[in-house]
Write a sequence for this structure.
């Protein structure tokens, strides 16, 4: 399909985003306005990976649509790799929360969370893990008087069960995703499986409910201390007091420290926090996603747990990717890719401390983003 590049609406460390319109007559299956994500063809491995993941996932109303890719020769002789994606006129959910200057209402949180969980259930059922769930990667689509949200930015996505290759920064380790959203097993064992997406979902819900990152509004200057709190300690993000009891229980299911006891996305769809405001259209969306069973070791129902009730945990008050939207976040963050490990957290505290020590650095990090975008619109 031919298309025409419009004005730039954002740029990051390796790619830019422009508006794009179809050339000539617009096909019936293409919108009149799209977002095109472009980067140097020689440096396009990450963007090509994202395109391939979206192709393998297929169509789902809760995931941003991909309309194809192409190579273009630019006027200065450079060759660009381009991906045409669905344009979100409402920006990201992070933008929405920030612009309001206050938390979202609980009905909004329920509605948006249900949409995100539907998208995650679909992604997991197809055998993938997103690896960077956060409000910056949830795009907002105005729909009359309401808003719909969709999951975007699959540049860090991986196959569930896929062993990650060693290599990269910080002594052979890299961050994979956004540190402030990382699950304990990701810190401890370099484990990135569907349960880690559910933990990050919980962090996103906390941010919707408070207007602040789940681990606090200020970046932690001591990386070692932050990783200890996420990985080795008993603490979980503080549960917002303003949430209903259903909302608090929902978050406790997301923040189970043991990933084997953490609820799956499919289980969360049945939680009262999401089921209360369920409507016929929501159920139709789930069917339209053509969800298939994904075999994993996670419990598939409540009775798979040894405990039928939430475990009490101590709490503390402690934020990549691009969003293909007119408003985006900034600054880049390291990521780590290491070797796949078992879900069980090692009881060897010395080896755990050694691993966290490898991840920590003397430099003051930005814990809010894994990859940033500068808004130029």
């Amino acid at each position: 399909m031919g298309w025409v590049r419009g004005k730039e609406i954002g740029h990051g460390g390796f790619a830019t985003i422009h508006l794009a319109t179809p050339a000539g007559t617009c096909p019936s299956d293409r919108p009149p306005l799209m977002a095109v994500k472009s980067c140097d063809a020689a440096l396009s491995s990450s963007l090509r990976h994202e395109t391939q993941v979206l192709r393998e996932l297929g169509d789902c109303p809760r995931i941003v649509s991909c309309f194809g890719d192409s190579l273009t020769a630019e006027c200065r002789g450079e060759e660009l790799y381009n991906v045409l994606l669905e344009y979100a006129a409402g920006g990201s959910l992070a933008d929405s929360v920030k612009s309001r200057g206050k938390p979202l209402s609980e009905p909004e949180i329920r509605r948006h969370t249900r949409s995100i969980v539907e998208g995650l259930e679909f992604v997991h059922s197809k055998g993938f893990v997103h690896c960077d769930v956060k409000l910056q990667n949830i795009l907002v689509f105005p729909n009359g008087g309401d808003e719909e949200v969709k999951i975007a930015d699959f540049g860090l996505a991986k196959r569930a069960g896929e062993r990650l290759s060693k290599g990269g920064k910080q002594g052979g380790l890299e961050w994979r995703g956004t540190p402030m959203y990382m699950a304990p097993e990701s810190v401890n064992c370099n484990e990135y499986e569907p349960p880690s997406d559910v933990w990050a979902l919980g962090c996103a819900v906390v941010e919707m409910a408070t207007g602040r990152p789940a681990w606090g509004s200020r970046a932690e200057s001591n990386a070692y201390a932050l990783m200890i709190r996420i990985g080795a300690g008993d603490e979980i993000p503080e549960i917002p007091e303003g949430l209903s009891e259903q909302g608090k229980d929902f978050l406790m299911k997301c923040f189970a420290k043991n990933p084997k006891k953490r609820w799956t996305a499919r289980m969360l769809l049945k939680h009262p926090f999401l089921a209360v405001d369920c409507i016929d259209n929501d159920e139709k969306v789930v069917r339209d996603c053509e969800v298939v069973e994904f075999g994993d070791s996670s419990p598939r129902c409540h009775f798979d747990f040894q405990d039928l009730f939430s475990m009490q945990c101590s709490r503390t008050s402690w934020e990549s990717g691009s969003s293909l939207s007119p408003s985006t976040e900034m600054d880049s963050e390291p990521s780590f890719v290491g070797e796949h490990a078992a879900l069980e957290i090692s009881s060897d505290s010395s080896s755990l401390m050694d691993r966290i020590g490898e991840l920590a650095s003397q430099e003051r990090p930005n814990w809010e983003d894994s990859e940033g975008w500068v808004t130029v619109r």
